[in-house]
Amino acid sequence: MTQNPSAHGRRTAAVVALALALALTATLHPPAGAEPQTLPEVRAELDRLYHRAEVATERYNALDGKITRQEKRLGTLRTQVAAAERRLNRLTALAGAAARSQYRGGGVPAEVQFALARDPERALDNASLARQAQLATRRTVGTLTTTQEELRTRSDAAGEELRRLRRNRGSLGSHRRTIRSHIEEARKVESRLENRQRRELAALERRAADEAQAEWVRTGALDGAGTEGSAAGREAVAFARRELGKPYVWGAEGPGSYDCSGLTSQAWLKAGVPIPRTSQEQWRRLPRVPVTGMRPGDLIIYNADASHVSLYIGGGRMIHAPRPGRNVTVAPAGSMEILGVVRPDA
What is the pTM of this model? Predict the structure, then answer.
């Protein structure tokens, strides 16, 4: 008996739809006392936890960069204090020598007495020369006083810088614990998934990303997008491509692993353009361009809090370090909520 192809197609579609519905409503084995979750609910919870971890990571990166700058500043201050101390020691010795010379010569330095002894006819200049010597000594003492004040100021600044550095190191530890807490919580959620559910969750994420990308493309966002980046932009993209497959690790900026802004900042650094370390600072400080005018090499900033960043590579695609447990990968540029686009070499 022959089978109607269209009827067969409808039955196949119905089976697929039923399987999809069952997958989406499949429940996990929740912890004791917890309500069962569907896969969409699990996905939403994981997104929330990993987003919080990423926000904390960028705060950690910002603070880590601040501490690095403070350490450099502290090193500079210590060098300046050491130089001021050496200058103070020289001036102290000079002032002491001048005072001793004037004491022995009745107010006239030994070198002045020597000059007068060789040329008695210049005796009338004695008072003038003594006056000049006294003024020179006063200037030395005045410089000595100024140097002492400078040394005291720089020492105080170095001490305050050190206190701020210690406070920030304490905050750095707090951010580190926050990140690990969110990641650990997310991993506990994932550990309750069976292998089948993991596959279904991955398929659900891909469908959501494809749908978001399709909706973004329909807005015409790519109609005016460039296909050719600048020389530096092409170099940044080439670097990011070489890093594909390397794992996401929070706080990492290569060479073996990256977080999102670690990848983009290193890509542009390799292209000869240093940029801020964090996604928030990249959004705040780099020149912005319209999404419709972006080109390969530009950075796409995601989420209302600018907590994620990727490198646009053209054709509606981007390279990014997604989150813990994932690797640097190529993905649809519109698969997440786009805040805006910045161009490091504008």
Answer: 0.68
> How large is the average pLDDT for residues 301-306?
96
Tell me: pLDDT of 116 over 60: no
- pLDDT higher for 87 or 241? 241
Residue partners of 3: CB distance under 8 A and separation at least 6: none
Beta strand 329-332 pairing with 317-320: antiparallel
Q: Cα separation of 115 and 131, whole Å?
A: 15
The CB-side HSE value for 296 (13 A sphere, CA atoms) comes to 19
Query: Which residues are known to be catalytic?
Result: 260, 308, 320
Residue 253 tokens, joined: 């900026």
* Mean pLDDT to the nearest integer, 24-29: 48
Rounded Cα distance between 75 and 270, Å, is: 27
Q: Among the listed ranges 69-73, 97-101, 117-121, 206-210, which one has the minimum average pLDDT value?
A: 117-121
- Amino acid at residue number 263: L
Instruction: Give the pLDDT band (50/70/90) at residue 233.
Output: very high
Task: Give φ, ψ of 319 to 5 degrees.
Answer: -115, 135
- Strands, E assignment, the chain: 288-289, 299-302, 308-314, 317-320, 329-332, 338-342
Instruction: Report which of 47, 51, 30, 325 is spatially closest to residue 193, judged by C-alpha positions.
Output: 30
CA dihedral (300, 260, 265, 303) positive or negative? positive
Q: How many CB atoms lie within 10 A of CB 263?
A: 26
CB 28 within 8 A of CB 36: yes
The crossing angle, in degrees rounded to 10, of helices 231-242 and 260-270 is: 130
Q: What is the pLDDT of residue 280?
A: 95
* Rounded CA Rg of the chain: 35
Look at residue 148 and tell me whether its pLDDT is greater than 60.
yes
Averaged pLDDT score across all residues of the chain: 81
Backbone torsion region of residue 108, taken as left when φ is above 0, otherwise alpha when ψ lies between -120 and 50, otherwise beta: beta
CA 2 to CA 149: how far, in whole Å?
103
